[in-house]
Amino acid sequence: MATNDKSALARGVVTGTVAVAGLGIFIATNWLVIKGGRVVGPHLALLGHFFIGYRVTFVGSLIGFVYAFVLGFVVAYGVSEMYNWLADARDRHGQTR
Known about the structure:
By secondary structure, the protein is an all-alpha fold.
C-alpha cells in the first residue's frame, strides 16, 4: 500500500504543476500581460470569481498558479487514491482482468 500512496502523491504533484491547472494559468495570464492592449484578458479575469485575489497581472498569475496547483493536486490525488483503493479491493477479492 505504501507504493500506491507515493504514486498518488506523485500524480497529484505532476498534475497540479504541469497539466492545465497551474502552469496553464500562469502561462496564459503572462501571455496576455505581455501582449497588452486596451482591455487585457476579460475572459481569463473571470477566474477572479473563483480564485480570490486573482487578476490578469504578473502577481495574479502567481496567485492563479497556486490556486490551480492546489486544485489540480487535490483532484489528481483523489482520483489516484480512489483508483488505488479500487485496485486493492479487486486484488483482495482475487479478481483479475
